[in-house]
Amino acid sequence: MRHFPLYVIWLFLFLAAPLLLAAGSNGSQPIRFNHKKHAGEMSLPCTTCHQTVKEQTYASLPQVETCLGCHAAALTKNPEEEKIRQYAAKKEKIVWKRVYQLPRDLFFSHRRHVVSAKVECVTCHGKMVDLTEPPTRPLVRQSMSWCISCHQEKRASVDCNACHK
Amino acid sequence: MPRWGMAIDLDRCTGCQACVVACKQENNVPFSTPAEAEYGRGISWIKLMTVTEGEYPEVKVRYIPMFCQHCDHPPSVKVCPTGAMFKASPEMGSTVGHVYARCIGCRYCANACPYQIVYFNWNEPSWPEELKLSFNPDKSIRYKGVVEKCEFCDHRQQMAKDRAAAEGRDLRGEGDYVPACVQSCPTQAMVFGDLDDPSTRVYKLAKSPRAYRMQEDLGTEPKVYYLKQGE
Predict the structure, then answer these.
(1) Which residues in chain B are contacts of A159 at CB distance < 8 A?
(2) CA distance B61 to A70
(3) Phi, psi angle pair for B63, to nearest 5°
(4) φ and ψ of B32, to 5 deg
């Protein structure tokens, strides 16, 4: 065991890489939510599911009760839709995986951007309405220079302590 | 546009150190071990200086809360090579702030500051496991190799501004937000507000004949006013 050949591990990782990557991407969300169906074809506003956008700093991810508002009875024959009622029956929470991770030293308020500054969701989150599968990574690469360029354009504060905490 | 400042009535200060505890809790300030404290490496954004006068039995102890004086001409900002230490624009309160992610830990600021209130993280900060549950999520946690200091609870200002913007108004010179130390002071010795707004209490106190600032001759123009103790 002491001289366990290391290359075996590397070989395994190399061969299993496509599987591991696939497991990490598409299957990562508990429900394969279709943004195109909801926000595109049905033209539901984003706040139908991300309910605290206009009241809080965070946007919130929908819970079972929110989904059941429409999906209490089956609307389609999609097995993904059935999962909602399974969650409800088991009284479990949907554990969505966060796509956007705000760095710990930053202050960001959705309310401030959406209500006061009237920034559209699509400006920062990209064309979510075209996605039939849950996104695995942000559609727009959000960097500090990207934030600053918009702040300068809109004459918002570019002070360090306007965002860093 | 507020110019945040503070006035501390030393006659009212009892030396209870509620402000010291409140600050530590509010800003996720790490604890240090006794061995580290012996090296003078403990971190306390606000500390209580004691001055003992006279001889027994006629002893008098004066207490002076000491923290970042948020100078209008801060020497620490002038020497910072990376721009991590900065003076905020009038729009954000003219306070002296610090971006940890930019800090390279050179400690020029700690040496330049005449008030000795910039602290360096000599070790990876650590807390007892139970206390990690009480972290303030509104404030970042620092790491080994950066300096830190009082920021007049900037994170509270950010939230206050957010609330004010939601109500469609500007931040008021007084009452919208106070730092944790001011909030916790049981004798209300500390008063916080806009130094440029004549209607605020801090404006009146700063104009009082008892008011003085620390090492005024250096020309740093501190925004913290102390009100002299009576005899």
Answers:
(1) 86, 88-89, 91-92
(2) 69
(3) -110, 135
(4) -125, 160
Task: Locate the domains of chain B by residue range.
Answer: 4-227
Q: Which residues in chain A have their CB less than 8 angstroms from residue B96's CB?
A: none
Q: What is the pLDDT of residues B165-206, one digit of tens each?
A: 888 898 999 989 999 999 999 999 999 999 999 999 999 999
Q: Are A128 and A35 in contact (CB under 8 A)?
A: yes
Q: Return the closest-CA partner of residue B123 out of B104, B145, B93, B106.
A: B145
CA angle, corner B7, sides to B4 and B8, nearest 5?
140
B88 Cα distance to chain centroid: 15
Cβ count near A58 (within 10 Å):
14
Does the domain made of B4-227 have the CATH classification 3.30.70.20?
yes
Query: Tell me, what's the pLDDT at B229?
Result: 78
B91 contact partners, CB below 8 Å, separation of at least 6:
A157, A159, B1
> Domain boundaries in chain A?
29-61+96-163
For residue A10, give the DSSP letter.
H
Distance from CA of B54 to the nearest CA of A (A): 44
Task: Say if residues A25 and A136 touch (Cβ distance below 8 Å).
Answer: yes
ipTM over 0.90: no
Report whether A93 contacts A64 (CB < 8 A). Answer: yes
Contacts of B107 (CB under 8 A, 6+ apart): B118, B120, B147
**Is A165–B138 a contact, with Cβ atoms under 8 angstroms apart?**
yes
Ranges of residues in chain A whose predicted pLDDT is under 70: 1-6, 8-9, 11-27
C-beta separation of B46 from B19 below 8 A: yes
Beta-sheet strands, E only, within chain B: 4-9, 47-53, 60-66, 85-87, 96-98, 119-120, 147-148, 190-194, 211-212, 224-227
Verify whether the Cβ–Cβ distance B92 to A109 is below 8 Å: no
Which amino acid is it at A124?
C
Helix axes of A79-90 and A64-71: crossing angle, nearest 10 degrees: 120
Residue where the block lists tokens 């001409």: B73
Give the model's pLDDT for residue B165: 87
